[in-house]
What does this fold into?
Amino acid sequence: MVSRTYRTLLRLSCLALFVALAGCAGLRENAPSKYEVFFASGSSELSPTTKEIVGQAAATIKARHPKSVIISAGGGAKGLALSDPRFNVVRDALVADGVSPAVIVQSNLPVEKMTGANISELRVEIQLVQN
It folds into this structure.
């Protein structure tokens, strides 16, 4: 009787472990390689929503181990003035979440990515580079 219960528990434990591992693998494969973080106008502070997005990016970075992580900011007069403080805030949040600072690279958003002055002034991109 004990051995039958033990075998059932062992099977259920193996099944639970398999499902958990399959779920983790799916998260890594389906997670995006680029995250967009939007700031309030004139601000370089992370809101609760942006903290969550940066946390998701950090989890993906730690799972995928990319060659580098490019944090791009800028756009418009206000965006360029805030690009360094926003880069620092996002970088610091990623590092606090366990991302190695050695893989983080700073960049400015290219002009072709600036879809509108207001949007580009508010946006920072986090991009994972695998190769």
User: Anything to note?
Assistant: The helical segments are 2-30, 48-64, 76-96, 117-122. The CA atoms of residues 27 and 60 lie 8 Å apart. The chain has two domains: 1-30, 32-129.
